[in-house]
Amino acid sequence: MNLDDLALQIENMRKRVALLQRQSEQQKAQADIELVNAVFKEVYFALEELQLVNEDLKQQNEELFKTQQALVAESQRYQELFEEVPDAYFVTDTKGIIQEANSAATTLLNISKSLLLGTSIGIFVLEKEIIAFHLKLNHLRDRTRFPDWKMQEWEVTLRPRDKTPIMAAVKVAAIRDQSSELVSLRWLLRDISESKRTQAKLQWAEEAMRQALAKEREFSELKSRLLTITSHEFRTPLATIHSSAELLEHYRHLWSEQRQQTHLRRIQASVMHITQLLNDVLMVSQDETGKLEFNPTPINLVEFCRDLLEELQQSDRSQHAIVFSSEGQCTPANLDAKLLRQILSNLFSNCLKYSPLGSTVRFSVTTADEQAIFQTQDSGIGIPASDIEHIFEPFHRASNTGNIVGMGLGMSIVKQAVDLHGGEITVESAIGAGTTFTVILPFSRNFHV
């Protein structure tokens, strides 16, 4: 029954009460007619009040209808906004079960709304992050008793259906009832994968730039140190060449053949020393500029080592006893001759430089299992344990070298050459007991014939 029907019934009752009242006044048949009249009057007044109430209800009904229409319009606007939000928008219960989702949410997770509703938002989180996600969700529920609880934000990796994982920015806010009790959660998710990739590229570019600048500074410092050290190192052999040449020029006709040969050997040794310095500097420079190449060719290792030892013995002027040995097959080894020369000449020169005159220096080469093993052994001053870990760093010299000349480049060059071969180098040393270097170089399968 609606308000109009109620109004009609009230009007009918009023008419019937008025009719009964007129009839009772005319008949005067009953003794208690006055009492009946009083009752009729009370009923009449009650009906009048009902009429007023009815009119009040009608007005309230009209206002309620207008309010309902406004709510419908507001709900429609909310739904339109909910759907038109470009980011994924979810409403879940306090446990994360999805109750509402917009079109952007279905697009983000690549799933229809019918399948999305009623599922937990956590099932779309990447496995390795799921525990952290649920901890955050529990933390949100625990904080709901605080009235100042605000929107929470974090990042999470999502797993859309049949698509690659994406990085998403998450914003979660509380939805409360009139008593401020938490009833649901509002989620806003935005795909930030592309921005993350862009950010990563920018960071990589910045890091590459920093490394390039650091490399440039390092190379500049290296050039400065090379110029300083080489200019200093060149003075001694050049002075020796100059003095021996000057003496030969003025006094060779007065000297014996043996004395002349002594000065000529000094000149030759100084020239070899300068040549070695130049080779070291050139190799360091090529390595720093990325121009150092690896070009393996077939090499007869025994002949190569004997020829190199002969050159080094001439500069040593038989001040040490040199023992050479070789084992293994005589087949050519596929190694870079230029780099191998740098390795062996630097190692062997150090043996001669840091060993007492008259002592024995041993050098061996072994070939087996498609690799060459070189070993130098001396009984010299040895390398302190604190210096061994730095021995392959450029310009590093052991703390016990004293006044023995050197630039500190030899061992770093050896390490570079060994690395280019894909080999390894080890060192064993004891103070005053000598040093043993072992170099293992695998034969390269790519070589120039």
Structure notes:
The chain has 449 residues and is an alpha+beta fold. The chain has helices at 3-27, 33-84, 103-109, 113-116, 130-142, 193-251, 257-288, 301-316, 337-353, 385-388, 410-421; strands at 88-92, 98-101, 152-158, 166-176, 182-191, 297-299, 321-328, 333-335, 360-368, 371-377, 424-430, 434-442. It has a five-stranded antiparallel sheet, sandwiched between helices. A hairpin with a 3-residue loop joins strand 11 and strand 12. The longest helix is centred in the middle third of the chain and has 59 residues, at 193-251. It is rod-shaped, with a radius of gyration of 50 Å. The N and C termini lie far apart (109 Å). The model has no long low-confidence stretch (mean pLDDT 78).
Draw up the topology in text:
Layout: H1 3-27, H2 33-84, E1 88-92, E2 98-101, H3 103-109, H4 113-116, H5 130-142, E3 152-158, E4 166-176, E5 182-191, H6 193-251, H7 257-288, E6 297-299, H8 301-316, E7 321-328, E8 333-335, H9 337-353, E9 360-368, E10 371-377, H10 385-388, H11 410-421, E11 424-430, E12 434-442
Parallel strand pairs: 7-9
Antiparallel strand pairs: 1-2, 1-5, 3-4, 4-5, 6-8, 9-10, 10-12, 11-12
Helix pairs in contact: 1-2, 6-7, 8-9, 9-11
